[in-house]
Amino acid sequence: MIETSRFPGGHVAWSEHVVVRDGVRLACRDWGGPGQPIVLLHGLAGHAGEWDMLARRLSSRYRVVAVDQRGHGAGQCHPWDVSRAAYVADVIAVADQLALRQPVLVGQSLGGHTAMLTAAAHPGLVRALVLVEAGPGGPNPNGPVDIGGWLDSWPTPFPSREAAAAFFGGGPVGAGWAAGLEEREGGWWPRFDRDVMVRSLAENAQLSFRHEWGQVACPTLVVLAQSSFIPAQEIDEMLRQRPATMAMSIPGTGHDLHLEQPKILHAALSDFLKGLA
Q1: What are the start-end ranges of the E strands in the chain?
Q2: For the whole model, what pTM was predicted?
Q3: N or C of the chain: less Cβ packing under 10 Å?
Q4: Strand order in the sheet with 128-132
């Protein structure tokens, strides 16, 4: 433990642990809690703090750990390997080093993709899978270019977190993205390298992962936004390929539904987790 965060009144909210795999530093927010372990994985260019509201609620009943993945947040900014396999191996290392036996993996966007690949490759190590605005995807040659262009549009450094939150759309989504910035060199900057983010999408630009989706054997919940990034035909194919998958949509939400509606997401997860018992 190298850091603690506290609620008003002095109660510890989470403790930070460092997991090192293959020389790469990963930072984990360990919320403690009894019961079934849950590992929370953010999306591309995100950070572990995106899950704070959900983690706080879940930790009353479950052992909750949110991970700053390689190249993100408080983790190592310039990992040499950003392959899908490296992200998966990191999840296994976190579970092993923090003694999280058969965790439920919950991932949003690219974090959900990582969770899916982990469940597919290590069926005996994952209790269940929750994909939040995530799916197996397919070849998307324009993906890295689009993401690079979006990151290049950020007017960094931001003069304040408030200005950053406004740029990202305001409200809980803007605040969530702005919380991932750090103050240095005259302003507020992302805690990641733009080129690392683009390279992290290299395999998704070229490959289909439908086979891996079909290899997932654990109970699975898919949570989608009303304005989902996942094409309807991909969702239909996912459910055709694995018809036992539970799926739901949260009205009035977009891709960052975990920031927009953490209470509703918590209720959905709680019902799903109770069903596992």
Answers
A1: 3-6, 12-21, 24-32, 37-41, 63-68, 104-108, 128-132, 181-184, 187-190, 220-225, 246-250
A2: 0.95
A3: C
A4: 3-6, 12-21, 24-32, 63-68, 37-41, 104-108, 128-132, 220-225, 246-250
| Model confidence band, residue 277 (pLDDT cutoffs 50, 70, 90) | confident
Single-letter residue type at 155: P
Domain boundaries defined on the chain: 3-138+208-276
The encoded tokens of residue 133 equal: 């605005």
Mean pLDDT of 67-96: 96
103 secondary structure, DSSP code = P
Size (the chain), residues: 277
In angstroms, what CA-CA distances link 213 with 63, 146, 218, 235? 26, 25, 11, 12
Q: Tell me the fold of 3-138+208-276.
A: Rossmann fold (3.40.50)
- State whether residue 257 is helix, strand or coil: helix
Give which of 217, 212, 215, 225 is closest to 268, Cα–Cα: 225
Phi-psi category of residue 9: left, alpha or beta, with phi > 0 → left and psi -120 to 50 → alpha? left
**What per-residue confidence (pLDDT) applies to 12?**
58
What distance in Å separates the CA atoms of residue 164 and residue 175, rounded to the nearest whole number? 8
Is-cis flag, bond preceding 157, omega within 30?
A: yes
Average pLDDT, the chain: 94
The radius of gyration of the chain from alpha carbons, rounded to an integer in Å, stands at: 18
Mean per-residue pLDDT for 5-14?
57
Residue 250: other Cβ atoms inside 10 A: 20
CA-to-CA dists, residue 122 to 80, 98, 119, angstroms: 24, 17, 5
Name the residue with tokens 């509606």. 261
Q: Which residues are within 8 A (CB) of 5 and not within 5 positions of it... i.e. 6 or more apart? A: 12, 13, 14, 16, 29
CA dihedral 106→240→135→104, nearest 10 degrees, is 10
